[in-house]
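Project standup — Tuesday

K.O.: blocked on the structure for the chain from last sprint. Re-posting the sequence here as requested.
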Amino acid sequence: MPTHDIVILGAGPGGYVAAIRAAQLGLDTACIEEEKALGGTCLRVGCIPSKALLESSELYSEAVHGGLSDHGVVPGDVQLDLAKMLKRKDKVVKGLTQGVAGLFKKNKITRYEGHGKLAGPGKVSVETSDGPVEIEAKHIVLATGSKVATLPGIEWDGDRVGGSTEALSYPEVPKKLVVIGAGYIGLELGSVWSRLGAEVIVLEYLNRILPGMDSEVAKEAQKLLTKQGLKFQLGAKVTGARAEGDKCVVTVEGSDPIECDRVLVSVGRKPNTDDLGLDSIGLELDERGRVPVDDHFRTPVEGVYAIGDVIRGPMLAHKAEEEGVACVEGIVTGYGHVNYDAIPGVCYTHPEIASVGKTEEQLQEAGIPYRKGKFPFLANGRAKALNQTDGFVKILAHEETDRVLGVHIIGARAGDMIAEAVVAIEYGASSEDIARASHAHPTLAEIVKEAAFAVDGRAIHI
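H.V.: unblocked you, prediction finished:
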C-alpha cells in the first residue's frame, strides 16, 4: 500500500498550491485529481478561460464600437472569428495546466489520476483507470472545490440551458442570452457575449446587482453596464427555464415568459462534497453542506483538514491558495494564518470592479464610525491618456484611528490597483500612510493616493 506524509484531494488552486508548499517543507506529498488536466475548475473552466474571453471580446468591441478610433486608430472591416477566439482561450488554459503538471514534477509530488475518497482513518481510496488504489497518509487535506448551484424548475440540459462551463464554449453567438444571477460570473460572461453581439438580459432575485459588494459601487456598475447594452430585471424570481427545440423559455414570477436562444444559470456555487467517503470517518457537514474546520483548518477528525470552497468563507481561488499554504505550514511548523479581512474580490467586467475589507453597509450595521474618501478616474491624467475615465476609488477609514477598513474600486485595471489596498489592510495602515507614500506619475495608482487624501478632505487634484 502506498504511503505518504500528506495526501491532498483536489488539484485546484487550493489543492495544488498546498501540495507544492508541503513538498517544499519536506513532506512526501501526493495529490489526487480525477480530471486529466490539473488546475481545477478555476484554471480549466473558470477564472482563466473566462478572462481570456473577456480580453478578446473587449478588443473586438473596441474595434467595432469606436474605442480604437478615439485613439486615431481606424479599423477596417472588423470580423469576428469565434472559433479562433475560443481556440486561443483553450491554448491559454492548456499551457497553464501543463505548467502545474511541470511544478508537480519539479517538486516530486506524486499524482494519482482518479476519484479519491476517504476510506477510514488515515486512508484514501482512489478509483483509477487501472483499478482501485488505497493510500495511507498521516495527514489528509480535502480541497475538492465547488460546483455550480441551480434553482428549482430549471431543466438543465448542459447545452441550451447550462452554467458557466457551457457559456465558455458556445459554438455561435446567441441572438438573445438570458443570464440568471447578477453576481461576478454572470456579469463577466454576460459581458463577453454582449460584446460579441448578443442581446443579454440579466435576471436577479435581489433588488441590486453584485450581492455583497459595496452598494455605491454596485449602482455605478449597473449604470455603466446598462450603457454598454446589458439589460437588467431586478427583483425577478425565476420559476423555471427549459429548452424547447433550438430555443429556450424562462419563466419569471409575475412577468411574461422570456424566449431566448440560451440560458446561463449563474446563481452561485456549492461545496463539492459528493462521494468523499465522509461517513467512513464520521465527519458530518454543517447546515450549508460545508466541511467544518477550526481556525487551523482541522476538521473534528484527527489528521483530516479542509480548505477552499468546501469550507466557510468566500469561494475565491486566491482565498483557497492562502488557506492551502497556511494549512500545510500549520501542519509542519505549528503556525499558519489567513487574514480574511484582507482577501480581495474582483469582477472582471469593463470597467473592472475590485474590493477588499468592509463595505459601508457592513460598517454601518456594526456601528463602526468611519470617514470616506473618494476620487474619480476622470480627474486622473493616466486615465485620460487611456481613455478610461469611468469609475472611482473609495477608501473607508476608522473615524478615530484612521486605520483603513475597506477599499472599493470601479475603474480601469481595478483588479491590479486593489493590491495596494490589500497590503495596507494586511499591515494595519492608515489612510494617511497611503496618502503620504509616493505614487509614480502618471499612473492609475495616484487615484488611490488621492482617495486617501480625500478621507481627510484634502484631495489635491479636484
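K.O.: great, moving the ticket to review. The two ends are 69 Å apart (CA to CA). Residues 342-455 form a domain with the Enolase-like; domain 1 fold (CATH 3.30.390.30).
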